[in-house]
Each structure stands twice: as structure tokens, then as C-alpha cells.
Design a protein that fits this description.
By secondary structure, this protein is mainly alpha-helical. The protein has a domain of 119 residues: Serine Threonine Protein Phosphatase 5, Tetratricopeptide repeat, CATH 1.25.40. The protein contains eight helices and no strands. The radius of gyration is 24 Å and the shape is elongated. The N terminus is likely disordered. Keywords: Membrane, Transmembrane, Transmembrane helix. This is Mitochondrial fission 1 protein. InterPro entries: Fis1, TPR-like_helical_dom_sf. It comes from Seminavis robusta.
Length: 172
């Protein structure tokens, strides 16, 4: 019989880009519907218990709307501050929202906070790897844009120098 490979070992066998791609697909498939968000908002308004608040914020943390993602982080941070019993879940949901907002550095930091207390938490490891891969991808894109911009500036400088030399030659 074959043994199943632990999730952490599987992730170590995947490249950070593969982990990022997988997480992005999972998050795309887990988008909450408007109906679900409305139901959770109503339940939270009727009974603003920490559990109802968490369920609403957790659903918001996977939204496609930036305002809802920011609101989720605010709610989840409040739950952590209040000592809500599921701290790692709050941190993970907030890290997910930050990742979806493109704040990869803060998402990574939140994941590292989770992994300090739960080093084998597969979802924390996955989100951490995806955040790092996203940061690297963004940095590579910035370097590429800088190189393109620098090349264009050099080309423009060359044209200006060429025109100046023609003008100088014609003026003599």
C-alpha cells in the first residue's frame, strides 16, 4: 500500500509559483455569493456574537470587492484584539483578504505569525508560499518595467544627441 505524502512535504515538492497558482484557483472557486454575504450580514446584525461576526468576516475575506476585503481585515483584527477563541483562523482569514488586496508583505507577515504557533498548518504554509511568490513576481515585473523604461530613456537620449550633433554640424 502506498503512503500518502503529508501536505507540507507535497508543498515542498511544488514550486512557489505552482502553489500560488493553486491557491489563486481555490480562492476564485470560493468566492462568496451576494446571497450568502447578505444572509451572514443579517445574522450578524440580529445577533452580533463573536461567532456570527467571525463567520461574516471570514466570508468577506474571500470577496472580490476591495472594500469588503478591507472591512473583513478590520473586523478580524477586532476579533483578535478582543481575544476571540479562534485567533489563527482570524489571522488566516485576514491574511487571505490582504493577499487578495495585493498586500503580499502583510499577508506574509500574518502567515508567519500563524506558523510560529502552528508550524505545520497546511493552509498557512500555502498562503505564505503564495504571498512570497506574488512578491517575487511583482518585484520581477517592476524590474522589467524599469529596464524597459531605462532602455526607452537611453534611446530618447541617443536621438536627442544625434539631432544635436546634426544641428551642430549644420551650423558650422
Amino acid at each position: 500500500m502506498g503512503e500518502s505524502i503529508p501536505k507540507q512535504q507535497q508543498q515542498q515538492q511544488q514550486s512557489p509559483q505552482e502553489i500560488k497558482q493553486h491557491l489563486d484557483e481555490v480562492l476564485q472557486l470560493s468566492l462568496p455569493s451576494r446571497e450568502v454575504l447578505e444572509e451572514l450580514a443579517v445574522a450578524c446584525a440580529k445577533d452580533p456574537s463573536p461567532d456570527n461576526t467571525f463567520q461574516y468576516a471570514f466570508a468577506l475575506s474571500k470577496s472580490s470587492e476591495k472594500a469588503e476585503l478591507r472591512y473583513a481585515v478590520t473586523i478580524l483584527d477586532g476579533l483578535v484584539t478582543e481575544g476571540y477563541g479562534y485567533q489563527a483562523d482570524c489571522l488566516y482569514a485576514a491574511a487571505t483578504a490582504l493577499y487578495l488586496l495585493g498586500d503580499y508583505e502583510e499577508a506574509r507577515t500574518r502567515c508567519e505569525n500563524i506558523l510560529r504557533s502552528q508550524p505545520d498548518l497546511a493552509i498557512g504554509l500555502e498562503l505564505h508560499a503564495a504571498s512570497v511568490a506574488s512578491m517575487e513576481q511583482r518585484d520581477a515585473e517592476k524590474l522589467k518595467q524599469a529596464a524597459i523604461g531605462g532602455g526607452a530613456a537611453l534611446a530618447a537620449l541617443g536621438v536627442v544627441a544625434g539631432v544635436a550633433s546634426v544641428v551642430m554640424a549644420n551650423s558650422h
